[in-house]
From TrEMBL:
Pfam families: GTP-eEF1A_C (PF22594), GTP_EFTU (PF00009). GO terms for molecular function: ATP binding; GTP binding; GTPase activity; sulfate adenylyltransferase (ATP) activity. This is sulfate adenylyltransferase. The keyword Aminoacyl-tRNA synthetase does not apply. InterPro entries: CysN_GTP-bd, CysN_II, CysN_NoDQ_III, G_TR_CS, GTP-eEF1A_C, P-loop_NTPase, Small_GTP-bd, SO4_adenylTrfase_lsu.
Amino acid sequence: MDLLRFITAGSVDDGKSTLIGRLLYDTDSIKVDQLETIQRQSKNKQEGEIDLALFTDGLRAEREQGITIDVAYKYFSTDKRKFIIADAPGHIQYTRNMVTGASNSDLIIILIDARQGVVEQTRRHSIIASLLQIPHVVVTINKMDMVDYSEAAYNSIVDEYSRMAQTLNMKDIRFIPVSALNGDNIVNSSPNTPWYTGQTLLDLLETIDVVRDLDFSESRFPVQYVIRPQSDDLHDYRGYAGKVLSGSYKKGDKIIVLPDHIESEIEAVEVHGIEVEEAFAPQSAVLRLKDDIDINRGDVIVTGSSAPIVSQEIEATLCWMDNKPLTAGGKYLLQVQSRRVRCIVKQINFKLDVNTLEKQEGIEKASLNDVVHVTIKTASPIVYDTYTSLRANGGAILIDETANTTVAGLMLS
């Protein structure tokens, strides 16, 4: 059974948490004791009704204010697929949380209030989805019950969003009219929208093809851990554990270990402790090599078909997530996959206006939620692909070493 990671995003009060709560409730994915707790905590509801948003608004402050502050992760499964849901905040000051949740998502659900149409935060979230190259976008036009399930209102929003999406070069976009509160077109098709003949939200999530999104042409295997049991029965065992980001690895493959460009050959491949002929993305595996060479955490094992970039000077687009501004000369830790190195931000090249996509040059600092293009110098080489060529190996984060916090998410170029 495969896994789909998706995130919900939208403006404040568009109903993101309610939609996820409805999805969990209607698929019987909520435990009895949790359901009883939420029933007791539901406020201002008619007798028998449940505040579905409470299933994802987990923080006390969120429940008291009726808003989502942090990204809430939920897990559920059906007979067809497993899911990890990230419910992102709608407030502009929490946009950084949305970026964090979207960075590993296969699909994004963008909610639009049928009464409000496309608003500024809709555009902002759509631009971020475009920058992060999330493969699939599902636009759920929510609160259709508040506009009497009007087909004209639905079509107007579809037309407006489609025009914007075309300028962002967004590829796979689906539209669904829903009422998260009433459950229309979430799990079951709604008789209130006879003019809509497409899939329900759950049916789309269960059937959308994410395997085709994987890149099997480039083989990338960042080493996360070197296994050396040094026991009597495994005295000479040396395995390299990690996740196959893209491509595949099989016994007999000629490989190169980067950044030191050491060549060897795969002697064995193990998955779940069992020796197999081949491991492929997105499996976790252990590779054993014929040669006894020095490999460390953060090194990348690749096949000879196409090599990634190995460099100490990197350009990247980043979303700044810290209250303290970013300025040229700032020193941080840069982490790409399992490799972490010290670095300095040499310069800020330009700022990207998230509403117009215009480049603003002459920028001296980046503030919270700003998207900027920077040049970074690292203390030692890192191995990466450009984000546009291989998303799985083109992302990174900046870390404030003193506070031990992530201050930026990066798309390498």
